Amino acid sequence: VGRVLAALRNHWKKTTFGVCLLSWGGNWLYGKHCDNLLRRAACQEAQAFGNQLIPANMPLKKATVFLNPAACKGKARNLFEKNAAPILHLSGMDVTVVKTDYEGQAKKLLELMENTDLIIIAGGDGTVQEVLQELSDANLNLLSLCAQAVFSKIPIGFIPLGKTCTLSQTLYPESTNQVYHIINATLAILKGETVPLDVLQIKGEKEQPVFAVTGLRWGSYRDAGVKVSKYWYLGPLKTKAAHFFSTFKEWPQRRQAALMYLGPTERPPEEPDEKPSRPPLYVRIYRRFRLYWSPPPKEIPQEVAPEDWEELKLSTIELSIATRNRQLDLTRTEDFMDICIEADTVSKGQFVNRGSQKMRDPHMCPEGSQCIHASRCILQLPEGTEGSFGIDNEEYEAMPVEVKLLPRKLRFFCDPRMREQMLHAAVQ
């Protein structure tokens, strides 16, 4: 023992390195063991769903999974197969996986959507938008077919596998453990609790409409945030560095535009999920005869009131148009989106400090900004305007656009605890 202690003392550098390496290795192995325990418990819970008896004439529930293997720097496929796929298969569902790693999938999506009970999107914010866009290109998107009951009530599940997963903050509790987060999202799909989410339809002059569940950003904070990854070598200082170096451009950085908008709209009552049963034959015959002998009076067409558009000239450092999905209120009586026009009188120090906050919450509306509630808006840009929009963290060329709110058009599976919190907050 003395010789060992002497050797460790004489080679203290190697000893310190070895202790650090063993500590890191032990912690890594313990983390892997905890992840395996989480997977086992989740599979046992999913097996309980799979063991439930169903009538012989009832087909298996079919789920279509849209998986983006490129998400999370190419790790999404492995994350899905290790953490989510076993749970889905053990639940007794008929699962079809579609990889969204190539273009021209509209025809394939059309064939799959004709016979599915639920959709599962496995990826990040970009994958959600890509799936909605591809469905739109196939003339089969859920938004334009809401009048058809077959498609309008298809629930959507979201498994967060990407680098940015804004929707998961609304649908699931926060967690620093990625495996737990994925497993919890997958189990939430099996539990069946859903919440309605708003969608923005963003249409340019000639382009096909783009659909967003989070919102649109245009301005200096967005442009600086895109360049954060270029300063990876600065570690935790990369965010401040990206915003600091962006101040070397022309300052103050202003965006000039004209905005026209309509105010909030009253929310109609929700339609019941179950249709009323068909009345007996004698009741239907009686109604026919009553309509024949005493037809209802003709309705006098009412004049449609002109839309009350508000117009605003704006000069801002950043403009954001966002849904209310982050602050979801299931009991509110009006439907609207948030338009945040940030003041252009921001110092360079404020810009750098606020940039870090905007990276955590891109659609935050700082103090001193003008916030507008609108159901529809038209953004007119001056000729020759350069730059890009950020729509659900995807880049698009800046151009004049019309943004229309489509309230409660998609139903997403959520954790039951999150739904209870929403209802409890609404009551308070």
From TrEMBL:
Residue span, DAGKc domain: 58-206
Catalyzed reaction equations: a 2-acylglycerol + ATP = a 2-acyl-sn-glycerol 3-phosphate + ADP + H(+); a monoacylglycerol + ATP = a monoacyl-sn-glycero-3-phosphate + ADP + H(+); N-(hexanoyl)sphing-4-enine + ATP = N-hexanoylsphing-4-enine 1-phosphate + ADP + H(+); 1-(9Z-octadecenoyl)-sn-glycerol + ATP = 1-(9Z-octadecenoyl)-sn-glycero-3-phosphate + ADP + H(+)
GO cellular component, one term: mitochondrial inner membrane
Gene3D superfamilies, alphabetized: Probable inorganic polyphosphate/atp-NAD kinase, domain 1 (3.40.50.10330)
Catalytic activity, EC: 2.7.1.107, 2.7.1.138, 2.7.1.94
Keyword Mitochondrion applies: yes
Cofactor(s) annotated in UniProt: Mg(2+)
Pathway assigned in UniProt: Lipid metabolism; glycerolipid metabolism
Protein name: Acylglycerol kinase, mitochondrial
